[in-house]
Amino acid sequence: MNELRPEPGTVMTMQWRKWDGSAHWRSDCVYLGSDQRGDWLGQPSGWTSTRPGYEFVAETPNVALIPSGRTDYALTVHDDHPRDLRIYIDLAWDVRWESAELVTGIDMDLDVVRRVNDQGTYVDDRDEWAEHSARYGYPADVMTHLEALTLELEGQVRAQHPPFDDATGDAWLERLETLGLNVGPRAEQ
Question: In terms of Cα–Cα distance, which of 9, 10, 2, 8 is closest to 101?
Fold first, then answer.
């Protein structure tokens, strides 16, 4: 096991930033373990995610995959969500373990989403991608790579290839449930 990985059940943080280094989403989560696809983090109902000026409390559990050997996306799978949200993939840059209790990454705006309603699977936030690529000066090679990856991931989500299938996410959601965590780590302090 990589020395930066904590023991399963360890409370930790996922910290996103924008290309210019400014703060973005910071999520309280728990390390669940790893499989052949990478490391899995969980966020029970009631745990928080914050960004400057906004706080979100998870209404239902979700799990996130930090893929092995990839630094260009993170996958989140939601349990029965009120907004019918099942899959949310953040296209990213430089996703990595900073320590045993901190994963960081640069949010690159584009997202692949699967809802379990008429919206189905789609690419979200193309407007932010266009705006931020001009504002932050994303390098052309990074843009070309992420645009191609977005389309590839959208196809894999539509086809429900693992880990974008229901069975993979459900197995990790079950593991999260077995931990019995229902109060966020900040509430315990």
Answer: 10
